[in-house]
Sequence to fold (364 residues):
Amino acid sequence: MSELDTGSTKPDFDPKKAEAFAGRLVSALNDAAFCLMLSIGYRTGLLDAMRDQPPMTSRDIASRAGLDERYVREWLGAMTTAGAVEVDPSSSLFSLPAENAAFLTRAAGADNMAVFAQIVAVLGEVENDIVECFRKGGGVPYEKYPRFHAVLAEDQTVLNSLESHILPLVPGLADRLTQGIRVLDVGCGSGRVMIRLAELYPNSRFAGMDLSPEAIGRARGEAAQKGLHNTDFIVRDLSDFDQTADAESFDFVTTLDAVHDQARPLNVLKGIFRTLKPDGVYLMQDINGSSHVHKDIGHPLGTFLYTASCMHCMTVSLAQGGEGLGAMWGEEKTRDYLQRAGFRSVETHQLAHDLFNNWYVVTK
Fold:
């Protein structure tokens, strides 16, 4: 690409730098399209239908998944050119390599990256609303994201490592849960973690609070379906949690990527401090990043996380007239907020399988 091609005549213009960036844009367009096709392949069951199967025609794949062959054929074109699916040119048979299926199907469990590809499509649904917010300010409310909680509920990262990696972050916690304690998940979403813990530790009681009636409805429904009697899920605006939280009521409190999108995050943290017993523990999962953008250059998921923040986390807070803290508030600001809430001991942990988050073990 030349200076003439770009329309630039600046003396310090670097054509090689421009050409490299143009190549980056071409890759971005392909990768964005790939994410959309991954989302469709995951939602329709195409990826699952191809796992552990011999090479098949587009018609066989469509039949196995119960879908229209013409759409499946075009989808296969996108997936093949993306390198996710392989084709034998002599027979036009398509296959999903086992190495790729290990990250793209429901059987992959916590390694399933296709779940997160859905987020790209979900965020795209509110692009017009976000553009208006850029022009006029304000935010986009939770109800504009009808599939967001359903997508997050499919993420198995926390559930699959709950007993092996997460609970051991707090020494002696598993024993206390076995004996029986009170647990609260603030911003619980669909409540899957509390439901799993309620199944594992029937002597303990588990509560979850969330602003979304849709999410709480899902949590209540799943708990009822499983016949659990030690859970309680509540629709609640936590903006005044610093004043309304029941004092010294819970032995263990969690937030799972929930603080940064609250309208009043500091009030939420003060409420957690208020409701935690003197010897209690607060376990906070939140985004692994820095409070300084230049330190996030090179972050393996930096662009994705800032985008998700702009198009969901930040804007749902602003829609409530909130602070709009954003997902990339970073460890420095996280520690500052925790100290301002009253906490004195903050330990930061990272789990090898979790690229998204830091795990903070916090006590009074």
User: Anything to note?
Assistant: The mean pLDDT is 93. Residues 125 and 145 are 8 Å apart (CA to CA).
